[in-house]
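retry 2 of 3: previous attempt timed out while embedding S-adenosylmethionine. Reduced batch size to 1 and resubmitted. Inputs unchanged:
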Amino acid sequence: MTQEEDAQMEEEDAEKAQHYENMDEMPYELQKYWHQRYLIFSLYDDGIMFTKSAWFGVTPEPVARKIAAHIALAAPKHKTAIIDAFGGAGGSAIALARSGRWDQVFAIEKDPEVIKCGKRNAEIYGVSKKIWWIQGDCFDVLKARFKGVGKNYVIFASPPWGGPQYTDTTIFDLKKMEPYSIEHIYSNFAKVTKDIVLYLPRNSNLNQLVKYASADREMPIIHYCMKGASKALCAYVGEFSYPLQNGANEAETAIQE
Ligand SMILES: C[S@@+](CC[C@H](N)C(=O)[O-])C[C@H]1O[C@@H](n2cnc3c(N)ncnc32)[C@H](O)[C@@H]1O
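retry 2 succeeded.
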């Protein structure tokens, strides 16, 4: 086997869905996530699965739970379903399903190995029957399957941020977010529903978000923190009620139980 083939095989292996049993199985650059594994998924030892790239993107459980509680409270009452457009390993979709607020939770994920992780992780949390996983490109799937019916839906979007480099600048330019700019995401998703929760880097340029606010109502933008530091922010675009805090603790407790 040539060196190139060897390297390629290693790369392919790294992107397979698997349960990591110990830190030595993980590439060096991922080992910091190993120490946070129970914060990311409290049921990690039950067989939680990741691909290499899924470790980078997953929303840690306490953050996912708080966001799910906020969405449950603040979304317009007539909304009956939610679509997690970038389902990943299921961190967000599992919390949304556990909130009990939704008749249906859809999770779209384009990577077949990552979707395996999401499905397995949802099983571990006992919500596999509550999440409809759809493998595909969310822009295509939303257009083909949800345009028209989507007015009764909320979209939750935690897109890729272009890797850990988002921390390299003080203010993150959402127009240059890779591979999808904020405009690309919003303009496509707004064709399905106007109620969209955007999960974005904590240093996102807020001036680029305010244009999505309507003239006559507030648009909450909330930082979600762990251990005293912001992990990310969510922009609640559309007709979400504000303030979100009333009842949020009760809603979150309900998710834990
Ligand atoms: C930041 S992660 C989402 C993490 C997820 N919220 C969680 O908590 O596990 C982004 C995910 O979007 C997926 N993705 C990227 N582009 C996509 C697309 N066009 N359609 C569907 N999924 C996509 C990636 O494979 C990745 O798993």
